[in-house]
Each structure stands twice: as structure tokens, then as C-alpha cells.
Write a structure and sequence with these properties.
The complex is a heterodimer of chains A (343) and B (401). Chain A is of the alpha/beta class. Chain A has 13 helices and eleven strands. Chain B has a domain of 210 residues: MetI-like (MetI-like fold). Classes of the chains: A alpha/beta (343), B alpha+beta (401).
């Protein structure tokens, strides 16, 4: 066993290790997804209404339904998806490094996030705002009365920065108590360590109604201290994929506008309305323009339902949360939900 | 020629096969280990490079440290508001880490020594209590301990509205599930002059104590040095307070609005972290102390007893000074471990260096590589400095042998 042979062995192993290391691929996201056979959505691990494990141990929720709809659009099969649970901090890393294809995870669209992270915001799918929850026993109804209060926040979220802004703008003082673990933060609030719990209004309502022992002893103040437009997010630099993610949501909204539901979609297949014919792929091939099958909208509606059905099932009257549509009603009903036309 | 062929046939028969040749195996082992380590390192590096290349719009840069923080901090020893830069928020976190580490290491050493001595007591009950303490708390993960203290004990204290008030109205101390509140002085204009008087008084007391000691050594009759030191310090403190117009304004805590305001306070999260970690670390220190005491020869104790020392003085003057040489090296590593463990404060909302830098700042800026590098370097520096100081101390007491 000569010394030369030893060195040779070492070189061979190092070369092997080198060739084994992963390199980035330059294929488009759609090609990667199609090759893989399913889409990977970065989403919640447990967030009532948006993405959580149901009794059977499957992911369910509003965000999960967008993932299922996208899978139905690409593969004609809503089950061809995988949920990659991520924390607030992990989601952008997972997207940037290609561990997931799209973020469907209540992500607030802000200027600094749009520019700082390697992320492209596709479409706003839920209009939320930050609220303040207090025990009714405090007898407080305005934010001004909260001067000097202790507030439980989630470290590193926009809500923590908003609360700092809101109190500074009114010349009020407060003591923040940032708690990393969400469960722990709620427990700390319930024990009275903080006077106020602040986060998105939808989450305050959903958590209180599902997990509080006495939800009626707490109230969300009638003030919204920030705009929280929740949006879907994709990687920078893949315009085709951006279009697909945008038009999945647009199609779901348009379907609600035209009254197409999972129940009645088959009856629309012989519709004479050109808009509906273009949507369902019976006239022109709009799916082909996106790189999708021509029946992509039909499959989404049939398997998952339109925007309104998704909302009702997960957040609205058909769910324990019972949120009202509010700003998330269609523009025709006085809300903000509006999608470009199929033309 | 024939002999060579015969030799080769012979060699083939007798030589051990390659896969059982110990020399060969030894080399192969090393090659495999080196290749594995190199492979993992290369994979990690190329993974990072790939990830950074994908994020090419955000190159590594530390400029964000000068950006405005944007968030407020509750637990802080220095003034901090949302308009301060991010690097100041890191400093706040670092000071919070030091605060809980120093208090914790001192308390854990005292408690650990106490329990270590208890463990060696001839009293059955005392010794067994110490044994149970050590074996219970050494075998529970520290995270669990501090969550227990925070959640099950401290959070269950009364709310601020029903706070326990002690020594009211002379020296009101409030205990509530937000922390401990007590009267505290805030500096007035004359405080800065008063500070110099205090410093001067301290120096004077130290000087007098030194002179008394020298005198005692010369004459062989040691005066009460500590008493004189304290008397002088107290005299200067009182005298300065009388001469200067109120260097400190004493404020008492009182329930105002939602919170107890005024005076000084120590937050609930600090107590939770301190208790959880002190109780954990003390169990280890107790074992180190026990080992140290047992390392002192029996004859020392017997000789001291023969000379008529009380058992307390035997421990204080004979055993512990010798035991300390054995105790200090493990104590060094426990102290460093304690400092690193304070990062568990994240779980209960104590904003230490890790919680602020790895939680707030990392999430807000998205600068994973930069913040994590800073965190690694800071903890490494703290640990190295701590071990340097304690090693110097260790060398001193070893040489005095």
C-alpha cells in the first residue's frame, strides 16, 4: 500500500462527493412540478381556518384549498399536492431555495418584503387587518385607553412593527412581550400576563372561537391598526409560473361571480355565454396560453369549488369560525374581491 | 525464473487477503472518514452557494445593522425605542443575556455548594434530600424546568389588580404575575457628584482595610478588618447623602391603569429563566463540590478536629479552600454552559441576545446568513472570554498550593 495509492483513493472519494452535491436546475417551475408529478405548497402547520390538520390527519383550510385548486388546474387531480409546513421565518427561505413552489400561507404583502426577499407577490386573496384583543373585564373600547398596557406580540412579524407604529403615532406607551411560540403567547395572554393580544383580526376571531375556554370574556376592539393584504408568493424571475398562480385565483373568483359552483359546473358545460365557454375550455384554449390543460378551470371548480365555496367551507358560515365576508365579499356585493376578465 | 514463480505461488497461498489485511483496513478507514467529512462539508458549502446564487438580488451585507429597528423592547437595561438602530437592539439583548447569566451563575454556585455540602452530611435526612434534589433536577431537560417555573408557578401568581403587597406603605413590594416591583431611586442632578463621593468612600475604605491588615500581620493581632471597611463605607454614604440635596429620588411602585408603575421591577420572564436554569445548574455544581470535598484527605479534617475547630470552621477554613482546586475546572464549564443555556429564554419570552437577534431581527430583515454568523461569533466570544478569566483564576489558586 504505497502512499501514492492512498492519495489516489482520497482524490477519487472527494471527486465522487463533489459530483453528488446538488446543483440548481434552470428548468421552469411548471416543468419541474410536472416532472415531479405534484406541486409543493409552503403553508401552515396549524392555523385554524387557513391550514391545519383535520380529524383524519390531512391538511385542510383556506390556504390548503388554494393548493388543491392549483394541483387540479395543473394535473386535473386536486390530490396531486404536498403541503410543506413552514414557520413565518422559514417560508421565504423554503421558496428561495426551491424546497417549495409557491407560498400559500397568509403572507402580508409589504414593500420591504417584496424587495428584500427573493419573492414575487402574485395576488391578494384575503383582506385582513390587525386587531387588538382584550378581556372584556378591562372595560376598554379605544386604543387610547390602552396607554401603558402590556401587549403580547409574535416576534418578527409585521404585527409587531405595526403596534409600535400605532402607539408611537398616538404618543402612547406600551410594554411589548414577544413570545416565539404561538400557543405559549395565547396562554400568557389568558393568564393575564399581558393586557392585549394583537395579530390579524381573522386569527384573533378564529383562535378565540375554537380554543378559548370562555370566548365571550374577550373582545376584539373596533379598530384596525393596519392593512394586512394576504397574498400568494412565488419566486422572482418565472413569469409563466406567476401567471398560473395569479389566474388560478382569478378563475376561482370569476367562477363565483358567474355563479359556477362545484354542484352546478356540469350544467354550464353546454352554456352559450362566451365568457363561461372560455373559462370552462369549451371555446378557445385559454388553458393552453398558461401551459395548462384546457379544462383547468372545470377541474378546479369541480374538485375544490369557487372562491365563495372555499371561504364558506373554511372560514365562513360552514366553519366553526363563522367569519363574515366583510371586505372579502365580491366587488359586486360591495367587497374588494375583484378579478380581471377572461378575454 | 522458476524460483520466482514458486515464490509467487507461495505468496498467494500465505498472504492474508486484502479485506482482512489490518494495514489496508486501517488506511481505508481513514480514507472513508476523510471522504465523508469532506463530502458533507462540500455539500453544505455548495448548498449555501446555490441558495445564495438564487437569492442573488440580496447579496451578503451587514448594512442592515444601521437600519431603524422598528420594534420596541420591554426588557432592557439601556434606553431603547423603535427609532434606534438594529445593532443597539442586539446590544440590549447582549446585556439581558449578561444580566441573567451573572445573577444565575452566582446563585447556582451558592445553591450548588450548599447542596453539595448537604450531600455529605452525616444526617440521614439532610443527605438524602440532597441526593433526591441532585438526581431529579440533573435528569430533567432545562427547557422543561424553566417552562414549568414560568407557566406553572410564576404565571399563576395573582394578576396586577390583585397583586400581593408587602411592607406597605414604608417599602411597598408588589408581587404579581408580571414580575417583582419595588421602590427604586432615580438619578437627580446631584447624583453624578454623589457617585464620585461613593467611589471615593470605597477607595478610602479599601485603603484603611489594607493598612489594618498590614498592621495585623505585623503585630500578630488581626483587627476586625471587614467591620471597619463597612463602617467607613456606610459613614461616607450617609454623610454624602446628608450634604448633597437628594441625589436619588425614591419612587414607590403603585397600581396605575393596567400596570404597576414607578420604582424598579424585575420581569416575570427573568425570574422564570433564572429559577429554571439555577436549579438545573446547581445540581451539577453540587456534584462537583462533593467531589472536591471528598478529594481532601481525611487526615485534614481529623487534625482540625483534634485542634478543636468547630465543624463549620473546619468546612470554611480547612476543607473548602483545598476542595476549590478540584471544583473550579468543572465549574468553568458549567458557567459557560449556563450562559449558553440562557438562549432557552426564547421559549418564555425573555428577550436575550438570541431571542432578539435570531428571532426579531432575523424575521424582520430576512438576513439569515448574516444574523446567524453574528450569533455564532458572539456566543463563541462570550464562552472564550469566560473560560479565559476562569482559567486565569484556576491557575492562580493552583499555584498557591
Amino acid at each position: 500500500m504505497s502512499k501514492k495509492f492512498r492519495v489516489l483513493c482520497l482524490c477519487v472519494f472527494v471527486l465522487l462527493a463533489l459530483t453528488l452535491s446538488v446543483h440548481a436546475q434552470d428548468a421552469s417551475t411548471l416543468e419541474l412540478v410536472q416532472e415531479r408529478g405534484h406541486i409543493i405548497c409552503i403553508s401552515h402547520s396549524g392555523y385554524p381556518g387557513f391550514g391545519f390538520l383535520d380529524e383524519e390527519g390531512n391538511f385542510a383550510g383556506f390556504d390548503t384549498d388554494f393548493c388543491r385548486a392549483t394541483a387540479a388546474a395543473i394535473f386535473g387531480d386536486a390530490a396531486a399536492h404536498e403541503i410543506l409546513p413552514a414557520s413565518s421565518a422559514d417560508r421565504f427561505t423554503f421558496l428561495a431555495t426551491g424546497e417549495g413552489d409557491v407560498i400559500y400561507r397568509t403572507t402580508t404583502w409589504t414593500l420591504s418584503r417584496d424587495t428584500d426577499n427573493n419573492a414575487q407577490y402574485a395576488v391578494i386573496y384575503f383582506y385582513d387587518g390587525q386587531g387588538l384583543m382584550v378581556p372584556t373585564s378591562l372595560g376598554v373600547s379605544t386604543i387610547e385607553e390602552l396607554d401603558g398596557a402590556t401587549i403580547c406580540t409574535d416576534p418578527g412579524t409585521t404585527s409587531e412593527l405595526n403596534i409600535a407604529d400605532a402607539f408611537a403615532a398616538r404618543g402612547l406607551e406600551y410594554t411589548p412581550l414577544p413570545i416565539e411560540d404561538d400557543e405559549e403567547a395565547w396562554n400568557t395572554y389568558l393568564e393575564g400576563r399581558c393586557d392585549v393580544r394583537t395579530t390579524d383580526r381573522s386569527y384573533l376571531a378564529s383562535y378565540a372561537s375554537t380554543a378559548f375556554p370562555n370566548p365571550e370574556e374577550h373582545m376584539v376592539l373596533d379598530i384596525t391598526i393596519s392593512k394586512e393584504p394576504l397574498a400568494h408568493v412565488v419566486r422572482n424571475g418565472d413569469d409563466q409560473w406567476l401567471d398560473i398562480i395569479q389566474w388560478v385565483t382569478f378563475a376561482l373568483i370569476n367562477a363565483e361571480e358567474y355563479g359556477i359552483t362545484s354542484e352546478n359546473v356540469d350544467g354550464f358545460l353546454d352554456s352559450e355565454d362566451p365568457v363561461i365557454r372560455r373559462m370552462l375550455g369549451t371555446e378557445d384554449d385559454f388553458g393552453g396560453k398558461l401551459g395548462l390543460p384546457s379544462d383547468w378551470v372545470y377541474q378546479m371548480i369541480k374538485q375544490v369549488g369557487n372562491y365563495g365555496e372555499m371561504f364558506d367551507r373554511n372560514l365562513g358560515a360552514g366553519s366553526p369560525l363563522n367569519l363574515s365576508r366583510g371586505p372579502n365579499a365580491l366587488w359586486t356585493d360591495g367587497g374588494l374581491i375583484y378579478a380581471p376578465p377572461f378575454r | 525464473m522458476l524460483s520466482l514463480v514458486r515464490y509467487m505461488a507461495y505468496a498467494e497461498q500465505t498472504s492474508t487477503p486484502l479485506y482482512r489485511d489490518e494495514r489496508f483496513l486501517r488506511i481505508i478507514n481513514q480514507v472513508v472518514v476523510v471522504a465523508l467529512v469532506a463530502g458533507v462539508l462540500i455539500f453544505l458549502y455548495s448548498n449555501m452557494v446555490t441558495a445564495l446564487r438564487t437569492q442573488k438580488e440580496v447579496p451578503i451585507s451587514y448594512d442592515f445593522l444601521n437600519d431603524t429597528a422598528g420594534f420596541n423592547l420591554g426588557e432592557s437595561t439601556i434606553a431603547f425605542t423603535r427609532t434606534d438602530p438594529i445593532h443597539r437592539a442586539m446590544l440590549v439583548g447582549l446585556l439581558n443575556t449578561f444580566k441573567v447569566s451573572i445573577a444565575g451563575i452566582v446563585l447556582a454556585t451558592i445553591l450548588g455548594t450548599f447542596i453539595g455540602v448537604m450531600r455529605l452530611s452525616t444526617n440521614f435526612l439532610v443527605s438524602k434530600i440532597a441526593l433526591v434534589y441532585i438526581n431529579v433536577f440533573r435528569n430533567i431537560p432545562p427547557l422543561l424546568l424553566l417552562i414549568f417555573w414560568y407557566r406553572a408557578i410564576f404565571l399563576k401568581l395573582p394578576r396586577v389588580q390583585e397583586a400581593i403587597v408587602l411592607f406597605d406603605p414604608v417599602f411597598p413590594v408588589y408581587i404579581a404575575n408580571r414580575g417583582l416591583f419595588f421602590p427604586w431611586g432615580t438619578a437627580t442632578e446631584s447624583w453624578y457628584t454623589y457617585r464620585w463621593i461613593l467611589l471615593g468612600g470605597f477607595a478610602l475604605a479599601l485603603f484603611v482595610a489594607y493598612l489594618l491588615r498590614q498592621h495585623g500581620k505585623r503585630t500578630g493581632r488581626m483587627p476586625l478588618v471587614t467591620l471597619w471597611f463597612l463602617v467607613i463605607l456606610l459613614a461616607v454614604t450617609v454623610l454624602g447623602y446628608v450634604i448633597l440635596p437628594d441625589p436619588l429620588e425614591i419612587t414607590k411602585p403603585a397600581l396605575k391603569g393596567f400596570n404597576i408603575r414607578g420604582g424598579g421591577s424585575v420581569s416575570l420572564e427573568f425570574w422564570g429563566l433564572l429559577f429554571g436554569l439555577v436549579i438545573y445548574a446547581a445540581a451539577y455544581i453540587a456534584e462537583a463540590v462533593r467531589a472536591g470535598i471528598l478529594s481532601v484527605d481525611r487526615g485534614q479534617r481529623e487534625a482540625a478536629r483534634a485542634l478543636g475547630f468547630s465543624s463549620f470552621n473546619i468546612m470554611r477554613l480547612i476543607i473548602l479552600p483545598q476542595a476549590i482546586r478540584v471544583v473550579v475546572p468543572p465549574l468553568i464549564s458549567y458557567a459557560i454552559g449556563f450562559t449558553k443555556n440562557t438562549s432557552l429564554g426564547l421559549a418564555i419570552g425573555y428577550t436575550d441576545f438570541f431571542a432578539i437577534t435570531g428571532g426579531l431581527i432575523l424575521n424582520n430583515t430576512g438576513r439569515a446568513v448574516e444574523t446567524l454568523t453574528i450569533i455564532l461569533l458572539v456566543y463563541l466570544t462570550i464562552s472564550l472570554i469566560a473560560s479565559l478569566i476562569l482559567n486565569m483564576y484556576n491557575r492562580r489558586i493552583t499555584l498557591s498550593h
